Amino acid sequence: MTAAVESTKTSSAGSLPAGVVTGEDYRTLVSACKAGAYALPAVNVTGTNSLNAVLEAAAAAKSDVIIQLSNGGARFFAGEGLKDEAQARVLGAVSAARHVHLLAQHYGVCVVLHTDHANKKLVPWVEAMLGYSEQEHKRTGKPLFTSHMLDLSEEPIDENLATCARLLKRMSPMGMSLEIELGVTGGEEDGIGAEHDGADNAKLYTQPEDVAKAFKLLSMIGHFSVAASFGNVHGVYAPGNVKLRPEILKGSQDLVQQQFKTPAKPLNLVFHGGSGSEKEKISEAVSYGVFKMNIDTDTQFAFANGVGKFVLENPKAFQHQIDPVDGKPYKKFYDPRKWLRLGEKAMVERLQEAFVDLGSKGKSLAG
């Protein structure tokens, strides 16, 4: 009926080429997730170490994966030495994307390239990245990125949806997808959010009627997904601080299906703030059509913990090049390749848990 309604056909393993997926290949991947009742972890990266760890983890799990950058992560990827922060956000994201395009196929999995929360002031960031994708599409027939997110949940819904529609019209001819946010994800990520925390805050719960309004407008333009809030927050939260209500997702799916006479689970849903979430709530959300769950805080901690353990076990190596007592050289300890690799390995290990929790382990569509 509409441009965004997914096929219910299940894709078989090996049906897509390994590497970055865009356009119809991305739609196929999303449909396979929903039909197979599993989701992909969307992992925030900040540099080549965390990015390579995600690729390694996905290959080890034989799972497809989503690699994404926040605006701060993209700026850090470009290097803190670049003083023009707006330029650094764009160049860092583009640099990371080119890195993934070069390596992903060699890791033998399908990779979705995505950028995370962009509020109203960051719309120019997304528009600048679209310029790079337009150049890439003209040159190769594929965009540089698979998708981008606009988080305009703090704006009136009509303004939110109008801006989303405007950018989706630019993205759709390249086969790109747009992720939108309806309702507010609590916590804070790179300066976005935090003012709506608390289990009793209605803003943390998306209204199904708003989702239906978005579907009516955007489904006629192109492919999109919805980060619908059901009490989720960024970061790891104390018990009782927030109440997850995945049933809100089912309510949105049911309302859209009834109003627009679509097949079951017409919405492509996203779970933000996945770190620290209860496993049964994750499984319930996936059963309602969530194909993507963001994970950042847990993987940050895993990387830091891997490095930190080594530093604590070998403190002299991070204070002296040569032991002041016995003259022992410490180069093999403080060599960045040693301790950064331990961070990567810890991140790879933590992500194996995520692939299992989301049900994607062993289900890569890459041939």
TrEMBL record:
InterPro entries: Aldolase_TIM, FBA_II, Fruct_bisP_bact
Cofactor(s) the record lists: Zn(2+)
Keyword entries, A-Z: Calvin cycle, Glycolysis, Lyase, Metal-binding, Zinc
Alphabetical list of Pfam families matching this protein: F_bP_aldolase
Record's catalysed reaction(s): beta-D-fructose 1,6-bisphosphate = D-glyceraldehyde 3-phosphate + dihydroxyacetone phosphate
Cofactor note: Binds 2 Zn(2+) ions per subunit. One is catalytic and the other provides a structural contribution.
Enzyme class: lyase
Keyword Isomerase carried by entry: no
General function of this protein: Catalyzes the aldol condensation of dihydroxyacetone phosphate (DHAP or glycerone-phosphate) with glyceraldehyde 3-phosphate (G3P) to form fructose 1,6-bisphosphate (FBP) in gluconeogenesis and the reverse reaction in glycolysis.
Family: Belongs to the class II fructose-bisphosphate aldolase family.
NCBIfam families the record matches: cbbA, FruBisAldo_II_A, PRK09197.1
UniProt-recorded name of the protein: Fructose-bisphosphate aldolase
